[in-house]
Amino acid sequence: MNTVYRIMFLFFLLSLLQEKGTCQQAEDSTKLYQLKAMDGNEYLGILQVEDSSGVSIKTAKLGLLFFPRSEIKSLVKIEPKRLINGKVWFENPQSSRYLWAPNGYGLHKGEGYYQNIWVLYNQFSYGITDNFSIGAGVLPLFFFSSDVTPIWIIPKFSIPVVRDKFNVGVGILAARLVGQNTGLGIVYGTGTLGNRDRNISLGMGYGYIDGSLAKLPMWNLSFMYRVGMKGYLVSENYLFTGNNYSLALLSFGGRVFIKVVGLDFGLVLPRSGNIKTFIAIPWFGFTVPFGKKSPTSH
To answer: How far is CA 262 from CA 202, 273, 283, 285, in A?
Structure first.
């Protein structure tokens, strides 16, 4: 586990260095906009004029262009930090979680997504405010004639301690086993160091069953590292301990976006003194945003 933590920390340090360099490249682009025309073409340039008749932007290759309002599908202001090596990197549409675990960031108000993992896991999440979101999900085991159907809700508060640098998240996964009348879940807190594109999180949670809280916590250490316009490296790792055992779940994977749909993939590696053979469990999931329009779709 120590080796894993060192690798993750190294990734995070490299991400901070890269972020500093890329932001400096776009300091002067204070009026940078991306215009998407009705014919599907996109133009990046400095906004010159915007009025009721249309928009004029000055592009690097084509010079000054004018577009009537009837020919404009969308006009989006680009933050200087989003222009990297001449290309626009839109805001991470899945920045509030790793493969499954939450981090300190939250959904924006009016923003939501549907998440599916290996067909069975289904969850909807929605941002009520910029600091509070709620999720609800189900494992439809009744399709397999099971007498038990797990359902859950996940309220989460996100607290920006230092904006875009350090966030804290607290919440609860409150589940119910319908058919057994059993309640269980996890009360958790997590701290996230870094921005929405490149960060590392340390979290701690206590499990409970029917109101009985676990004596020892579970730990989570995860990181996210953006490697391109629509690609991320993601790692999510857990440590469970008891009186006579310890179990680590390590995961290494990635996330890519096709349009606005996010595809998650990776391997989960259980490690314990009682596990003598190498085991790698495939992970696959996808997310579809809804509600507030995702920046990647412009």
So the answer is: 24, 35, 14, 8
